[in-house]
Amino acid sequence: MPNFAFDYLEGGIDDEASKRRNRQAFQDVHLTPRYLRDVSTVDTRVTLFGAGYALPLGVSPVGLGNMMWPGAEAALARAAQSARIPYVLSTFSTTLLEDIAQLAPDVCWFQLYVPRDEQVMEDLIARVKRAGFRALVVTVDVPVGAKRNRELKNGLKLPFTMTPRIVWQSLTHPTWALRTLTHGTPDFVNVTSYRTDPSQGLSDFVTSMTRPGVPLDHLQRIRTLWDGPLIIKGLQAEENFRAAIDCGVDGVIISNHGGRQLDAAPATLETLRQLPGDITDRLTVMIDSGVRTGLDIVRAKALGAHAAFSGRSFFYGVGALGEAGGKQVIEITRDEITRSLQQLGCQRFEDMDASWLAEPCDKD
Questions:
Q1: Is 30 among the catalytic positions?
Q2: CATH no. for 3-356
Q3: Is the pLDDT of residue 293 over 70?
């Protein structure tokens, strides 16, 4: 993929310290293996909101997915459906939500950036419901668009402004360029009709379309509009988890937006580690940001997460191998989860808990 697309996917906010902390936090979790057990077979299945999935792994929402590789979002939706893992489509995807719902009818979840305009919000949720999405994931950690240095350097905005830098990067990646010409220039197709200024940069458009923070009354309104599983993505403060429970939320994805919003934010695994047990008992807790391997997912389960999501990993795969890339990432991760469980002496992923931690985590 050309550098401007790679930088968008790879980059974090400011000095990218939060992104680095996410990875380090996973690597700092040590697990004690238990041998003298038969681990010829292990069970990697997980149940989320009453639905069964083959792996505790999901595809995180990534805006502008088809910029990384033309057709990436559809390819990943097909791979997720085939492997039976959750696929979360971003509000700012570049494929129509109705098309994704047809490609991944059993595993599609929709991630909602809450619009400023309540009628727009109601319309989006109604479309998601009609399309048949299984869960609604409300992102709350983008109260303002982020000024990311790599995107500023590249002058990235929609529609693409063909600066000499972007033209050169595209020409030096001819396969990507030809496929993009065939597939069409990526755009925010699910919200195009709500856009007033097509020349806005990414940060400005996100800021103008979405609410500057999601207050509780809006979350309560969303709860009345959506009768399926409701998940909040981006919480890190204990008081916010408790408020979400009071609003009738079913699950949370602990997230700091992959280190792309606040460079001072704690690593998501540290948030999970410190979450009181009475909260984890009342919510289906999941995690993203920094997840790269199957062992990371096992580590997260030991700390109380039912499943983990990754965005960058999947788009790296598609960028490297095209259509086959998503399937390859799933199979690599499946193998890593399986081997990690076998090495630890755990026959079922669901049985992995804090007792495997080398340093026990007090959830009381």
A1: no
A2: 3.20.20.70
A3: yes
Q: How far apart are CA 225 and CA 295, in angstroms?
A: 37
What is the model's pLDDT at position 54?
98
Q: What residue ranges do the domains of the chain occupy?
A: 3-356
Average pLDDT, rounded, for the chain: 92
List Cα–Cα distances, 321 to 171, 253, 329, in angstroms: 19, 28, 10
The helix (H) or strand (E) run that includes residue 51 is strand 51-53
Sole residue written with tokens 């949720």? 125
Q: What is the DSSP string of 197-256?
A: -TT-BHHHHHHHHB-SS--HHHHHHHHHH--S-EEEES--SHHHHHHHHHTT--EEEE--
Which of the four pLDDT bands, split at 50, 70 and 90, describes residue 32? very high
∠ CA 80-96-59, nearest 5°, is: 25
pLDDT over threshold 80, residue 102: yes
Residues contacting residue 305 through CB under 8 Å, at least 6 positions apart: 254, 272, 285, 286, 287
Distance CA 95, CA 65 (A): 8
Encoded tokens for 152: 């500023």
Catalytic residue among 30, 218, 257, 306: 257
Cα(48)–Cα(286) distance, integer angstroms: 10
Q: In this structure, are residues 273 and 324 in contact, taking their beta carbons and an 8 Å threshold?
A: no
Cβ-Cβ contacts under 8 Å for 144 (sequence gap 6 or more): 207, 212
Q: How many CB atoms within 10 Å of residue 227? A: 9
Cα 225 to the center of its chain, rounded Å: 23
pLDDT at residue 364 greater than cutoff 80: no
Query: pLDDT at position 133, please?
Result: 98
Of 4, 28, 24, 5, residue with least CA distance to 16: 24
pLDDT tens digits along 230-287: 999 999 999 999 999 999 999 999 999 998 999 999 999 999 999 999 999 999 999 9
